[in-house]
Structures are given as structure tokens and as C-alpha cells.
Amino acid sequence: MVTYVVLANFTDQGIRTAKDSPKRAEAFKKMAETFGVTVRELFWTQGRYDVVTILDAPDESSAMTLNLSLGALGNVRTESLRAFSAADMASIVGKML
């Protein structure tokens, strides 16, 4: 599995319908399942980003397809960060010269 931290901001359309955001989050979780992606956590946040989501995807292609499908709905713009666990990082640095 590939883990991502997805940072999202509401678009003008998304903020106008912010009351629907919890319902949209549930629909997003169902959409993610169709691509084999699990939404581990989803938080609404204050500050620079409106929503922070932690995803587990079977591969990068699945995560990309989900993000493009979400963006096409027009409610949020996303920035995805590939995340590595402590075990992943230990393995990575173990290969360093």
C-alpha cells in the first residue's frame, strides 16, 4: 500500500456549499473504495488548508485517479504528499551509501 497525505482547499463552489461538506466527505469515501483506496482519516482544519486526509492506496495510479475524479467535481483543489512510515524510512536510509 502507498500512503498519501492530501491537503485540500475549498474552491469558490465548495465554500458556497460548505454545509454539504460532511455529506461530500462520505461520498468521497465511497468513491475512494471504487479505486481500492482507503480513507484512513479525514479532518476539517483551520489555517492554510480546509481539509487534511490520510489515504492508503494500492498503487500510485489508483491515488492519482481518485484525486483527478475528486478535482473534477469542482469543490476542492488538492495537493498530495507521498508519505512514508518509520519502517519505510528505516529501509530507505538503510540503502544509502
In short:
InterPro entries: GYD/TTHA1554 (IPR014845). By secondary structure, the protein is an alpha+beta fold.
Give the quaternary arrangement of the chains: single chain
What is the alpha-carbon Rg in Å?
A: 15 Å
Q: What percentage of amino acids are in beta strands?
A: 25-35%
CATH topology-level name: Alpha-Beta Plaits
CATH structural class: Alpha Beta
- Enumerate the strands of the largest sheet in spatial order, edge to edge or round the barrel: 2-3-1-4
Report the strand count: 4
Mean pLDDT, all residues: 97
H-E order: EHHEEHEH
The CATH architecture can be named as 2-Layer Sandwich
What structural class do the secondary elements suggest?
alpha+beta
Measured distance between first and last alpha carbons: 26 Å
Outline the low-pLDDT stretches. none
**Integer count of domains:** 1
Instruction: Determine the CATH superfamily.
Output: Dimeric alpha+beta barrel
